[in-house]
Amino acid sequence: MPAPHAHSPAATRVFAQRFSATRRGARLARLLAALQLVEWGHPRGTDHHDAVTIVVAELAANAVLHGRVPGRDFALVLAYDDVRRITRVEVSDTHPGRPAHARPAADEEYGRGLVLVDTLAANWGTHDRVGPGKTVWAECAVARGPV
């Protein structure tokens, strides 16, 4: 009799969804990302959950405010790597402009989104996507507990 095949859990879990390039779409992206993180075992209120949720919120807001092309959506991909303990966030839009990393003055109301992403993510950047536009990505690591 052959040995049963062991089912090992997937090393990477992925969530992907398209959203309308509106404030409502950006909000829904943040809410669904937060829910997905809970499903993957990262409860609300933990550092990892909060960091990834904020990164999704900022990148989705940028896609809506700066990357919006009328009639086009933006896409969100979350991928959690169990081995590396990293959640990768990718937000793709169809606008060709790349994000500008600026340091806003203290009295400016806007411009801190990428500063937050830079602070919360272990690494981030951009790359071309298939078709027009770009993908902005960020990787957030789960903090290692005491050994």
What is the helix tally?
3
Query: Can you tell me the overall shape?
Result: globular
Order of helices and strands: EHHEEHEE
Order of strands, main sheet, comes to 1-2-3-5-4
Give the end-to-end Cα distance, rounded to a whole number of Å. 42 Å
Q: Estimate the strand proportion.
A: 25-35%
Rounded mean pLDDT score: 88
Report the sheet with the most strands, covering strand number, pairing sense and barrel closure: 5 strands, antiparallel
How many strand elements?
Answer: 5
Q: What structural class do the secondary elements suggest?
A: alpha+beta
Uncertain parts:
none
Classify the helix fraction into a percent range: 25-40%
Using the CA coordinates, give the radius of gyration. 17 Å
Describe the structure.
- By secondary structure, this protein is of the alpha+beta class.
- Helices cover 30% and strands 27% of the residues.
- It is built from three helices and five strands, in the order E-H-H-E-E-H-E-E.
- The chain has helices at residues 23-39, 47-65, 113-120; strands at residues 12-20, 73-81, 86-93, 123-128, 134-141.
- It has a five-stranded antiparallel beta sheet, covered by helices on one side.
- A hairpin with a 5-residue loop joins strand 4 (123-128) and strand 5.
- Helix 1 packs antiparallel against helix 2.
- The longest helix has 19 residues, at 47-65.
- The N and C termini lie far apart (42 Å).
- The model has no long low-confidence stretch (mean pLDDT 88).
